[in-house]
Amino acid sequence: MQAICLTMLFLVVIAFGQSDIEALLELKKGFVSDPSRQVLVSWNSKSLDSNGCPRNWYGIACNGGRVTSVTVNDVGLAGEFRFSAITGLSMLSNLSISNNQLTGTISKIDSLQSLQNLDLSCNLFHGSIPPGLVKLKKLAQLNLSSNQFDGNVPDGFGKLQQLKYLDLGGNDLSGDIMHLLSQIGSVVHVDLSSNRFSGSLDLGLGSPSFISTIRYLNISHNHLVGEPFAHDGMPYFDSLEVFDASDNQLAGTVPSFNFVFSLRILRLGNNQLGGSLPEALLQESSMILSELDLSLNQLEGPIGSITSANLKKLNLSSNKLSGSLPAQVGRCAIIDLSNNMLSGSLSRVQSWGNYVEVIRLSSNSLSGSLPNQTSQFLRLTSLEISKNSLVGSLPPVLGTYPELKVIDLSFNQLNGILLPSLFTSTKLANLNLAGNNFSGSIPFQEIGNITSIDSVEDLSLMSLDLSNNSLSGYLPLGISFNVSFNNFSGVVPEHLRRFPNSAFHPGNNLLIFPHSQSSPRDVTNRTPREARSHMKSVIKIALIAGLVGGTAVICLLCILIYSRTHWQEHKRSSSKEDDAKIGFPEGSSAISHRSGPNKNVDPSLSSLAFDQDIFTSSQLGYGNDVGETSSVVKKHKDVGHLESVKKGEGISPPMSLLSSSNPSPSKKQLPDNPGVLNVSSPEKLAGDLHLFDGSFLVTAEELSRAPAEVVGKSCHGTLYKAALDSGNVLAVKWLREGIVKGRKEFAREVKKLGNIKHPNLVSLQGYYWGPKEHEKLIISNYFNAQSLAVYLHEMGPRKLPPLSLSERLRVAVDVARCLSYLHNDKPAPNTNSNRDCRTSSECSCPWLQPS
């Protein structure tokens, strides 16, 4: 009998194990891409152990024949994650799939009653948070951040007694902040940042115990208003260590936080707080506050002495603080008092002690001279005191600070000569002395006396700005800098001629820019009379060459215009004859023929030349930063036929998206009318390709070998038209270096933009994040349609029949609907949506019926 029971138990365990395996295999069917090849390859029914548990399945843990953990983080997995497929995993305690490209809803998650940790962060999940989530009684950690969840947070979080960690940041959630916080019982870490929560922080009206255990509370980047803690709700925060309510619309005065003895970090920047600065936050007390950020507010009054021994970071920039500098700063390492109304002598910094590492006092009204004490600032790394009224010369001690990397003393009234020690420092990387009264020459000759440095490139100095001074002498060798508004003379060294003219002019009228291949040494040995004679000869030659070249260009343009006009007239007459032959009435509009495939388009024009006015960098929303709107105003969903680029038709071979390491080709590489470029063979995309729509299938390898045309350029990057193997045509924006900041912030903003859906907007399809700085792409559908400007303003051969009054009205209404949607219904994050609203940025197809 006992043997029979054991056998039955064994069979039950195997049956449950098989059920778990089938659930995971069913879940696998929704995955469409696995760049790491770890999940799709290892998850197969043949890799099972004797207990029926998955063997060597990536990210899967099993106990007693039952799946207990699924951990698939940071592998770029794309597709739909169907929670309905895993409802039978009753023993699953951990589900962590963060930083992928998974989509779907979480409507059936309440069946996972054993779940203790749920991490869906940094994906593409959407919809509302289901009420069934609060039924998971064992849930201890919940992270839904950086997705596309919207709506209100369901009631009932107070029932989750085991919940310690809650992160809902980076979504589109809304509702009253007080209503949500009042439900939280034993949560320790709460992050509700970057959402659309509203209301005030009137926590004193809530239950006396509802937030007593919170240690970390981040409610920044929301829509909170009112005076924080107006009814003295601070005693309920007796365990709070980090409080961040920056980037809201909070008003009133700054609370003193007298009863929060454990508070270490307080961030209330970028609000509308006024009044004076609470002295309790700066003085020695029982508080252990180490970071205080009250920047970008409206604080007034003086700054008292800072006596706190715990405060390390102080940011009071961009307020209305007045008076003199504080006499003491305690043990502060970073002090930012820039952009205020501080006055008085700079000499007070001499008593700030030796703990200071960063001093930012720019944009005030400080006077006096720089201190000259060797015992101070031994840890100083950055000294920024620009736009004040400092006088005197640079103290010799300034070049002896061992850790100093940044000096910005621009736009003061400093004078004297430049310190040679500043140009031989092995740590100084950024030196800005522009807008002063320095005279003499630049002491680069001191570099030649350093035996341990072979060349200027071995020094740390990377940025030098000496513009708007009274410097003289010859230009130095081996360093890049701005020397405009000075009186330099002589020949510009060859390695400096690659810099723009703005680096030398205005000013420096005696500088010589030779165009010959003769060495600078030969030119510099000339006498002043020979130099002037040579300059006159160069000017004469340049004038003659310019006149001849200009005349030739004008003649060539006239010939081209005449030829093109004559050819267009001949073509138009031929088209009319052909139309008459095949039954078209002689007066029919050419537009009606363009609504279908462009079979009658001028064969001498490539598809790009036909549409180059439509797709500029701004027209797909990519002309601005990533945080700006990702859509273009369009009239209809069907915007015409997509013309494909074919080899052997008078166009040079197509350019791959990774053919060049420079995403913004120079003017020598790109013609005035953008066309297809002939460059070297492509490399493979080695980064992460993130797609917002699971039904839109394209791999990084396919994108890397896709032929591409340059259809627009801007200061933010280059726009390409890429033709995939499948026949689909994409618009790919390649962002130049420096536009994109952190990966997480970039991914969050682009995902929000990709979630924008509207009949008059072209939505983003995805983005690509590469391992190199310039490998950042934004992907959208490509639409081949004439811009509105062609109908309204075009005067050349492409001029189309004018729009009727009803058509103009319909276009205006659609544009207004789009702008209203962007501003009011679905505002794009951190953007001014109508920043580039032009007729050349809008596609219009009035000959089609609206969809």
Automatic annotation (TrEMBL):
Protein's name according to its UniProt entry: Protein kinase domain-containing protein
Organism: Carya illinoinensis
Subcellular location: Membrane; Secreted, Cell wall
Source domain of life: Eukaryota
Every Protein kinase domain range: 705-851
Keyword Transmembrane applies: yes
Membrane-topology annotation of the record: Single-pass membrane protein
Residue spans crossing the bilayer: 541-562
Membership in a protein family: Belongs to the polygalacturonase-inhibiting protein family.
One MF term in the entry's GO annotations: protein kinase activity
Gene Ontology annotations for the cellular component aspect, listed alphabetically: membrane
Comp. bias intervals (Polar residues): 589-603
